[in-house]
Amino acid sequence: MTPGLVNKQQGFSLLEILIAFSILALSLGILLKIFSAGVNTAVVAEDYTAAVQIAESLMAKTGVETPLQNGQDSGLENDKYHWLVEVSPIVFNPEDIDATAITAALFKVKVIVSWGDDNANDRRIELTTLKLSNKTL
Predict the structure, then answer these.
(1) List of E strands, 22-122
(2) Mean pLDDT value across residues 99-126
(3) Closest listed residue to residue 84, CA positions, set 54, 112, 117, 47
(4) Which DSSP symbol is given to 135?
(5) What local confidence, expressed as pLDDT, does residue 69 receive?
């Protein structure tokens, strides 16, 4: 190295530092948005899981703890989930079958569970099944 040449490079310029901080801020903003969206998705999935468990429990109770008869029942679970159970008989065409030979009755059981902050954006699930019951004479 020659004694007359002095290295003037002593660090980063202000422009280089500003560009580096801008890239860092943009990257962190994108990462935080991705993580917050993931957390929101996890909360929604947890709500759907709880709603399905409530609906399956109500469906299992129908016909065991409560009789299979035409009607509706509703309630509130965990101060968040509104539920409705609808039971309706399935009626067959009398010309297709011999009514005296029928020893069981078929019922449609529909369970609706809804939740949310307002009625416009409420989330809801609906489960439907058929259940068989002894026919009362």
Answers:
(1) 71-77, 81-89, 104-115
(2) 84
(3) 112
(4) P
(5) 87
Q: Measuring CA to CA, which residue among 102, 55, 120, 56 is closest to residue 81?
A: 55
**In a domain? residue 9:** no
Distance CA 20, CA 120 (A): 45
Tokens of 134: 């002894």
Q: How much is the pLDDT for 98?
A: 65
User: Cα–Cα distance between 117 and 30 in angstroms, integer?
Assistant: 28
Range of the domain at 70: 14-134
Alpha carbon 69 to its chain centroid, in Å, reads: 29
Residue 1 has pLDDT above 60, yes or no: no
Q: How far apart are alpha carbons 97 and 81 in whole angstroms?
A: 41
3-class secondary-structure state, position 1 = coil
Query: Is 37 part of any domain?
Result: yes
Report the number of distinct structural domains present in the chain. 1
Query: Could you tell me which residue, 82 or 119, shows the higher pLDDT?
Result: 82
pTM score of the predicted model: 0.70
